[in-house]
Design goal:
Elements lengths: L2 H13 L4 H13 L10
Length: 42
């Protein structure tokens, strides 16, 4: 994810009432399971 995509994701999740901790957990999960690591091509 790009920085801009992460900022947009944070804004949307905050609007939905998610806490900062929940948002960080999601970002960590997404970034640690990238498609490149799974052997997929974008």
């Amino acid at each position: 994810m790009t920085g801009k995509e992460i900022v947009n994701l944070i804004r949307v999740l905050r609007e939905k009432g998610m806490s900062a901790e929940e948002i960080l957990e999601i970002i960590e999960r997404v970034e640690s399971h990238s498609s490149a690591e799974d052997g997929e091509n974008k």
